[in-house]
Amino acid sequence: MISRRTFLASTAAAAMAGTMKAKAASFEGEILRVQFWGGSDGLALRKYVVDPFIKATGAKVIVEEGVTSASIAKVAAQKSDPQMDVVLLDDVGVFALNRQGLLDEIDISKVPNAADVHPSFVVDGGFGIGFWTYITTILHNKKGPAPTSWEDLWSPAYHGKVLVPAITDTQALLLVLMAAQLGGGSLENLAPAWPKLAALKPQVFSFIENRALDAQVLQAGQATAAVDIPTYFKPYMSDSSDVGVTTELKEGVFAITGAAVLVKGSKGNRDLAHAFINQTLSPEAQAGYATEAWYGPTNQKTVVADDAKPYVIHTPEQLAKVIQVPRLELVNKRPEIIENWNKIFFG
How does pLDDT run across 272-290, given as a tens digit for each residue? Predict the structure, then answer.
């Protein structure tokens, strides 16, 4: 298994040859089967990956839709007769599927755009590679000062003014982890989170359930901070919105990576599959994700439009501070977190 450093060093040597191969390749009549999310995420991928890929290669791309958990389940269920060639899913899916031996390592000589991917987004030694990243951070009402630290959520200024994620969302698990870290703990030691969350209880305005209504509450100033993923609020934020997004927090912001994987034993043309992954990593596609969905780029050559910059992680300084959590370990902690969360907030 290769390291991130080796992965990206190797891409530099392979990039020119890989680029020539990609330009020369013709896949007229070939079929590629892929799976990724539905909804707005799926529409962005169709617009910036699938459609230009079909036009460039002449291949037919058959898309099935499903969230990460469904994609994991489908690949596992089809292990004796794989039906998917490429799957795009959250980074936790890379670890979950690779632990079951259901993935093939990506051949970087066939993915020239990988040379420009930030090392943070090479997943599980090269069995997955990130094509976008989305953050969990603090949104706020811009009529007041922007928070500069996660600790600000506990300040008197936010008493009764914080929108908190529902425990069914990963964002709540990440908030618990941050509470533990602020109290001197860690993912391995969550004990400091419980008194910290008890102290957060008086700060809570409500729990996030309906983003349209929550955006109105933030806009009106009834709540002045929200812990969530900014893209969920995008449909409800106009250019004149008083809702802002904080990407510069002292401790950093949490990032989850959307990654591409190759399904082991799949039937499709492997060169075609690698070419598809290469398209997900292109600067043009990633600029589209940023504008369309507020998902940050992983390709360091991506130019993010000015109107998307406040909502995505994209600079080297931001990438250096991003908090990437071992998601399988976080999921394993979920029963403990839910039990304590419910006692604190609803007991």
Answer: 999 999 999 999 999 999 9
170/16 Cα distance (integer angstroms): 40
Quickly tell me which residue has 């039906």 as its tokens: 83
> Rounded distance, CA 279 to CA 295, Å?
16
Pairing of strands 128-141, 254-263: antiparallel
Residue (of 121, 72, 127, 81) closest to 104 by Cα position = 127
* Cβ count within 10 A of residue 70: 16
Question: Do residues 98 and 229 touch, judged by C-beta distance below 8 A?
Answer: no
Cα separation values, 167 from 179, 246, 253, 321, Å: 14, 22, 19, 25
From the CB of residue 60, how many other CB atoms can be counted at a distance below 10 Å? 13
pLDDT per residue as tens digits for the range 310-345: 999 999 888 888 999 998 899 999 999 999 999 999
pTM of the model: 0.88
